[in-house]
Amino acid sequence: MDSVDKYFEAVEQNQQQFIEALREVVAIPSVSGDAARRGDVVRMGEWLQARWEALGATCKRVDPGKQNLHGVELDLPPVILGQYGDDPSKKTVTLYGHYDVQPALVEDGWETDPFTLVERADGRLVGRGATDDKGPVLGWLLCAETHKQLGIELPVNLKFCFEGMEESGSEGLDEIIIAEADKWFKGTDVVCISDNYWLGKSKPCLTHGLRGVSYFHLVVEGPGADLHSGVFGGTVHEPMVDLVQLLASLVDSKGRIQVAGIYDQVAPVEAAEERTYDALDFNHAALVGDLKSDVVIHADERDTLKHRWRFPTLSIHGVEGAFHASGDKTVIPARVRGKFSIRTVPNMEPAAVAAAVTKHLEKEFSKLGSKNRMEMVETHAGRWWYSSPDHPNFVAAARATERVYGVKPDLTREGGSIPVTLTFEENLKRNVLLLPMGAADDGAHSTNEKIDRRNYIQGIKLFGAYLHEIAATDLAA
């Protein structure tokens, strides 16, 4: 039995112990977006730091500064940097994860207390943060601890970066990574992030692409105050009417963006990429089941995936300034703000996207002949990320996945954005791998968030197998 098999055996034997560790961290309500929970977020970071230091890691707590959260000035939770092992003959893997979670209340629809981990008969481990991202973050720690308990030397050096603000915009994180790129993170050979999910529910995957996101606010204003519709309806240009027409001009009911020039920026689908859609663990029946309604646009499953992963999409998110409470109110709002975003893909550049959107809205607004005023503001411009699945980092991860699960992983991209991926890649100048632990139906950010026992335990095995594969891989190949 080699060292990896011994490690696998120990993980199997320690399953309940690992679940109890997950129970302990889920019980810390580290909700970064709630001022009342900021102390709990800090406590979660300190828990991680103490546990790693007890293992023998060297840790550095970096305080990103302060933030104003709903009028309350708070200290940002610490970024925990760590190093476990410093053997110059070994490769160094840098890990990233986050220890904060989304808000969760029983009255939101949870079947149990969200901060009490519950193991159900079907193997679901239900609790806020179980899959996003406490399970994976804890998995790396348990991987290292198990190696030490067995007397098996970890085959690589580990550096890690665990933050407590990912669910609230990762405030201050980019600046820390940039400042520490040639200091704390110096010597990094590859980066691994486990903060995403399988494409389906039964087959593991490796993720090598993410869409970017450009976010816009569209403001239309006219009269100096809200007006009575019975007095002024039909006699003034109404900002809400203008806004609705402008928003409707951006995208059609089939999801096709109507902004001229947007699709001209998109990289074409080459034959090699087309083949990656063959035999993926994805079907419309499962998707419709998750949606609880058949509202899927595309008839072909690969078209659905392409529009999730590698084509741009435009979504309208909401309107500020309009009456939205229950009941009836006959008001003409004086100023309204519509919010929408565009998910971007290779080879789209944020500046070109914003320019095209601005030109489109100005043209459409001029058609209205309105005396109101319009302003479009870009509030965020996160870029897309793509990495070749043929990179040795991905090849090593694929071998590890096959050893644990007995199947070759799907090679997937994702429709969402993980901005820190690009921050690490550009500043450390090293390949970044997305290595998911959880499955597509885990319900991150939703009620009754869970991770399956199988994914949690096999994921801990996968982390160890990956580190052993990286140690034996020629990264220059």
UniProtKB/TrEMBL annotation:
Its cofactor is Mn(2+). Mn(2+) 1 binds at D132, E167, H445. Mn(2+) 2 binds at H98, D132, D195. Residues 209-365 form the Peptidase M20 dimerisation domain. It holds the Pfam family M20_dimer. The active site is at D100, E166. InterPro entries: ArgE/DapE_CS, CNDP/DUG1, Cyt/Met_Dipeptidase, Peptidase_M20, Peptidase_M20_dimer. One of its GO terms (biological process) is proteolysis. GO terms for molecular function: metal ion binding; metallodipeptidase activity. PANTHER family: BETA-ALA-HIS DIPEPTIDASE (PTHR43270), CARNOSINE DIPEPTIDASE 2, ISOFORM A (PTHR43270:SF4). Belongs to the peptidase M20A family. This is Peptidase M20 dimerisation domain-containing protein. It comes from Coemansia javaensis. The lineage of its organism: Eukaryota, Fungi, Fungi incertae sedis, Zoopagomycota, Kickxellomycotina.
